[in-house]
From TrEMBL:
SUPFAM superfamilies, per the entry: C-terminal effector domain of the bipartite response regulators, TPR-like
Name of the protein this chain belongs to: HTH luxR-type domain-containing protein
Secretion signal span: none
Spans traversing the lipid bilayer: 447-467
Lineage: Bacteria, Pseudomonadati, Bacteroidota, Flavobacteriia, Flavobacteriales
Keywords: Membrane, Transmembrane, Transmembrane helix
Domain of life: Bacteria
Amino acid sequence: MNKNNFLLVITIALNCFLGFSQTKIDSLQVVLAKTKVEKDRLTILDDLAKEMIRSNHPKQFQYLNDLVNLAKKLGDYDLAASRTRFIAQKYIYGGDQDSAIYVIEEMLKFKPKFTKKKSEAHLLLKRGGAYFNKELLNKAVKDYDHSADLFLESGDSIFAADARFFAGQVYTNLKDFLLAIDRLEESYLLYDKLGDQRYASYSLSELASLYGRNKFFKKAIEERKKVLEQQKQIRDHSGVGITCIQLASNYQSLKEIETAKKYIDSAFIRLDSVTHKIHIARIKTHGAAAYADYYLEKNDLKNAKKYLSIADKEKEFTGAPEYYNTILLLPRASFYSKSKKYAKSEEILKTILSKKSKINDVNTYLEAEKEIAELYALKGAYEKSHIHTTKYLKAKDSLDNEIKTNTFLFYQSQFETERKDNEIYKKESEIALLEKDKQLAKSKRNVLWMLLLFVVILSVIISSVIWKQGKLKRAALAAKIEKNKAELEAYTKQLLERSKAQEVLTSEIEKLKDELGAHQSSEKLKDLTAIKILTNEDWYDFKEKFRRVYPNFFASIKNKGFQLTKAEERLIAMEKLYLDTQEIARMLAISQDSVSRSRLRLRKKINAPKGSSLLEYLEAS
């Protein structure tokens, strides 16, 4: 380690110790201020920028710019490109699309110096977003498609899936039906392969909306049901609620209004599982609007009014009341029209027509033109009715032609796909015929298979020999364990015999005391009481023999957190040998009461429950 790196490590360690109460960002700023070596400064700046991005720190912009400039100075253009995308993202979120495009294009001037394809891909993905916000859709989709190709070449499927998803949305806005389907389907397959079910369901949902707008209602329902299954699997309760309402809308378009109602009911049942207040309000608003449509179809104005009131109330808690108010305009106008409140209905329909360019759903605008034409006809304003009828028919013809074209293109693409499959089958048949000329190659493969089989057999033989040797070793080990166990049992027996001898001698001394008197026997008694059945040497020998039979016994108890004294170890070793109280007392040269008290103290120390064996408790804990 060179001197500068050593000082850097010491500085970081010191600041971590002194700045324990500081935040990680504060600590990194202190370290950065003390670091002079530019390469080390780049590493610290990168860590600092990451932390600031995560916490949305107000000074992140400044440090990101410092990081990018230093990276370019040191020739690390991939790092500079990677961090430039966050600067661009900051501009995009701030609504400054031109600045975002400028910093990206300045960074792209260094493209020949990039070593990773994804460096360019990330920049293009961000620039596509800026172009989309500026409504430069052709430029946006070009960047999205190119970035997706680069990500796929780099093996970065998650960002490729994002780019395809965004491209699908742009192609939808460009009214390029087939390319929109293609990009959304590819994004779904990429997300699904990655196991990202949430975003896979987003792609399918967009695809279903696209099919619905082009009156492929059955296809839309098919895709939405797939979305519903995925959302149920990942327990996305709010997503399930919204998808149920979207399915209801598709069924209403097919005039299957009772089936539609079942899905609306399902959305409201799911509400008990949704925890986010905004999501609850959105499901309730969408669902109430759908219920209102259902009851308007059945001319049940009382219930229609009830659910319109619920939707009006709930939309205030959605976080986007204006958006949801626009959704409610058409059912509200229909309600007033059916209630013969034509003035109110006319006012709302005029509001819808004034928002023509801002309402994405063309069918809402068309329905408004149709209803206001009918309204003017009822009032006898035939000239106005004629004007709106003409607008309605013209817009409807235009939409119908677009849908017919898209339908034709869709089925043509399906036909071409089938034809391509037939061509592939034909080519595969030709290849099968050519296989007959490859008999020689097949013979060579057979030789290789024979060689492989020989290697396998040889491997089996070698494995068998190794296994037999292992078996012999295991048998020898088992014999050794049995021998050690026998030695321990013999040693234990020897100690018990010594204990019995001790008891006999003690008894004889007591007799001598009676016969000779305390004075004459005192010296012999003193010598006798000096004898210990288990001296330290005895215990050491015993413990060594014990460990040969039960090698992990004491270590296992210690690893479980039990700290036993030597006396407690002796007691529990006796227990392991299944000796009774009398035998333990003999071996340890103590009374049976002492053994019982030792057990009681040990039981309290280790908190062993009453009625359980000390040994079993220690081994099972």
